Each structure stands twice: as C-alpha cells, then as structure tokens.
Amino acid sequence: MKVSITSGKSEGPTKLNAFDNALLDAGIGNVNLIKVSSIIPANARVVRLPALEIGSTVNCVLSHSISDSRGDLISAAIAVALSDNIGCVAENSGINKDPEIIREDAISMVEYMMKRRGEKIKNLIVEEINHKVKECGAVVAALVYL
Fold first, then answer.
1. Mean pLDDT over each residue of the chain, to the nearest integer
2. Burial 69-97 (b: 16+ CB within 10 A, else e)
C-alpha cells in the first residue's frame, strides 16, 4: 500500500468554500474523502501525492480548522509514525493555539499509540500548516491512502 501526506490552506466567502478551497490547495479537493481511523499497514510506502481521479473515493485521516474571525491563527497537523509492523497517524488542530503545541501534541499522541502497541518508531513524519485568517479561512492536513 502507498500513502501520501499533504496539506493546504485557503480563504473563501463561506466556511464551506474556504474548506473546499483548502482541500483543492492540498490536491484532494476533487475527490470524495472518507475519514478513517489511524492505522497504516506494514510495508506501506509514503509517496508524493499523485493526481487523483476526479470523483473517486479516497480514504484519509484528516485534520482541519476553519474560522471566519479575522486575525485568527488556524492550524492543522498530522503526525505519522511507522515501524516494521504497523503505522499510526494522529491528527490535531486548533484556533489561536501555539502552532508548536499543535505539532508537539500530534507527535505525543502518535508516539503513545505506537508505544501502546509495543512498536518501535523507525520513521516519524509530521505535516503541519498554519494560516492567519483574512476573512474566512481553512487549513487541512491529511494522510491519503492510495
């Protein structure tokens, strides 16, 4: 199995439009996303996000934040931990929170998930995105199953 990690940010006239635009910015806006829990099978490879077939159904772990309050700092993060036997994904997001705390909390959660499973992390990948809202903004970070 292959997975990709991506993120995007954007503005729009409404929260829905801002979210849709952030998905487009991340390269996952023209597919139907199905949110799944946070497990990656053994031997999965992390690859660059390919062009996805328009209208296809795609499983993902999705973190997002949306605000229509000018000046808000919105953040989303995905932390991915891989071992020889399994991978885990943790997502975190927030509004007007320190982006470093958003990131560190995602890492802490995925490290705990792996420890609970008795797995040693071989590779840790973090994708994070932040945006200062102008009118109505959204951020997304996702792990996409290909």
1. 98
2. eeebbbbbbbbbbbbeebbbbbbbbbeeb
In tens, the pLDDT along 73-123 reads 999 999 999 999 999 999 999 999 999 999 999 999 999 999 999 999 999
Assign residue 77 the CATH number of its domain.
Answer: 3.50.20.10
DSSP at 116: H
Question: Of 7, 10, 21, 38, which is the active-site residue?
Answer: 38
Active site residue 91: yes
**Residue 22: domain span:** 2-145
Asked whether the beta carbons of 62 and 138 are under 8 A apart, the reply is no
Pick the catalytic residue from 4, 7, 63, 91. Answer: 91
Kindly state the tokens that stand for 58: 């795609």
Q: Give the DSSP H or E segment for 78.
A: strand 73-82
Total structural domains within the chain: 1
Environment class of residue 24 by beta-carbon count within 10 Å: exposed (0-12), middle (13-18) or buried (19+)? middle
Q: Known catalytic residue: 37?
A: yes
